[in-house]
Amino acid sequence: MTLAFTATVLGSPRIGPRRELKKAVESYWAGNLDASALESVGGDLRRRTWTELVDAGIDSVPVNTFSYYDQMLDTAVMLGALPERVSGIESELDRYFAAARGTATVAPLEMTKWFDTNYHYLVPEITRSTQFALNPVKVLGEVEEALEIGVPARPVVIGPVTFLLLSKSDDHAPLDRLDDIVPLYAELLNRLADAGVKWVQIDEPALVADRTAPELEATRSVYDRLATLNHRPAILVASYFGDLGDALPALAETRVEGIAVDLVAGSLEHVVAAPGIEGKHVAAGVIDGRNVWRSDLDGSLDALETLRDRAGSVAVSTSCSLLHVPYSLEGEDGLDRALRSWLAFGSEKIREVATLSTALRTGRAAIADQLVQSRAAAETRASDPRLHDDAIRGRLAALTDAERRRTPAPDRRTAQATELSLPLLPTTTIGSYPQTTAIRVARAALRTGEIDQAEYVRRMRAEIADVVALQEDLGLDVLVHGEPERSDMVQYFAEQLDGFFATANGWVQSYGSRCVRPPILFGDARRPKPMTIEWISYAQSLTNKPVKAILTGPVTILAWSFVRDDQPLAESADQVALAIRDETADLERSGVRVIQVDEPALRELLPLRAADQPAYLAWAVGAFRLATSGVADTTAIHTHLCYSEFGDVIGAIAGLDADVTSIEAARSHMEVLDDLNAVGFDLGVGPGVYDIHSPRVPSVKEIAGSLRAALGAVRPERLWVNPDCGLKTRGRAEVESSLRNMVEAAHLIRAEHG
């Protein structure tokens, strides 16, 4: 076997510790930076990342995990599988970004969630006419770049099985094209061996979901073929986000040298019991790559020593790429000493990997001080009073099923029709409007003390008045206040709930250049005071039209936070749901009659194995209904879902019992409506009629066509008209043009229906 490595991570973040890549990419899009300057930023970030890993003691460094947008899009480029519609764009980089974002004349690829994470990937489009061809320039270039500075490079590529299973293919079964792309992987392995690469990592996370017997046989066949090549690096097949299940013995019986396993979301016992594991180098993912809690070093070492007794050899690894956690705790000065001692961000996790590797090679005595610190942190966390709020726990214990139910939907529909008096096909937006420079300046000025709270409120009110006036001018039927005071739909609420902490620089990539700062749920969640009424009441005072209040639902708040791992997620969800329930009651008392509780992450947290899904859906739906069932029949509850494959949770969407569900549908061409009808969904629905993640301005004709398509599946009295998602990231002129066309299209279709 090729000399085995001892310490690694499965991937690294790429946005930069201070979001350098985000700023550079957006400058390139704006025409303020050329391609060579953008590449200079990218190169600096790559080398900085690799150097940090080597300096920390990592002896096998992942490369080709850097991306200007998305790793699945990079794989499509590597395999020559970009859609034909971008082929006319001369610049390779612009062609790449056109596939990601679209242009005025080119529609982008669809986008959806990467397994059960909040990262979004671009969905490749593969048809029978797709002509694959290897384009290894990026991966070979990064390998050369790393080896030149002495980095022990292990290139990482998405595997052929995962690539095809996650691609969109309407005219054939996903894996039908394996025979076309496996030779390209074989050629790539040959080229990597020529470049001096010792190990290559091939990511196959799709194998941790339920897979059919033919899919498992295809996987075994693929790696039999690749492993028997005469000239190649050693192969590490990497999985993450769960157990490999029956795929583990299928891989273990091939001649691949290594398998990376997730021992945080997966089971040590499953790996230890796998036949054939004794002949493999196992990268043991004992350091959590998806959450921010400090590792239990004693427990991790116990697992590593158990595995070492069974496997051929063992390396310490993260459970998945560090793409999903912030770079470092450095600069998080707002943390109290206790909370800080419980946490580990990316840099700290890298050091944990190196620490455990040292202990595994030389014994626990070599890390005695680190073990003492790990135990002390666990003890202070377990005894901290913020983790146990008796009042909240008492309320939850006293809940009854009646508090998760509303009056039957037909009765509510009648009451709301009388209360709101809306036209056929009412128009609205999802919540946020463009975050202007003035908004960002005011927020920064408040943070640094340049302005006081009163001046900040005055500026935000001015933004709200502007957005309300715009919506009145456009002729929208149900307005929103635009959310100028919210930097993020989860962080805003987390900052006002006890039990959460918002970081100063804990940025994580969501998609492309979009970054979020997930808050940290460390204790029991409680709402000390109302969170939104001041802003919504002001907006409502400016118009006679109904203003829709926008809240974030309990499942999404948890999904887009780093959550405590010391109690079941269902208990945390109900705690947050009680806070949202109290907010809806206060909003209703203030006169608000439309309340939207967003749950875009409902699909995101769905367990990857079917056997685990019913329990999750039961508590997720229960938490939403707890949050929304405390209002009168005359108050309309809306919800919003976006950018996920909804087929697996269609029944749960109906179970939410929201009066209106707005849902992403533009990139997927209204496909979700047929799924809703299949489960008897008979509530209001607003399928998105244009894609807000693309800079395109849709025409009246295009939107009218989407509405006609929707009316083929939805009765007119149930249909709402809205964009796919919030408008926060778009420009004012683009938004105004798009919404004006949307309203005109709605009027056109209303006229067609009398």
TrEMBL record:
GO terms for biological process: methionine biosynthetic process; methylation. Gene3D superfamilies: 3.20.20.210. The gene is metE. Zn(2+) binds at residues 640, 642, 664, 725. This is 5-methyltetrahydropteroyltriglutamate--homocysteine methyltransferase. L-homocysteine binds at residues 430-432, 483, 598. GO terms for molecular function: 5-methyltetrahydropteroyltriglutamate-homocysteine S-methyltransferase activity; zinc ion binding. It comes from the Bacteria. Its cofactor is Zn(2+). The keyword Metal-binding applies. Residues 425-747 form the Cobalamin-independent methionine synthase MetE C-terminal/archaeal domain. Keywords: Amino-acid biosynthesis, Metal-binding, Methionine biosynthesis, Methyltransferase, Repeat, Transferase, Zinc.
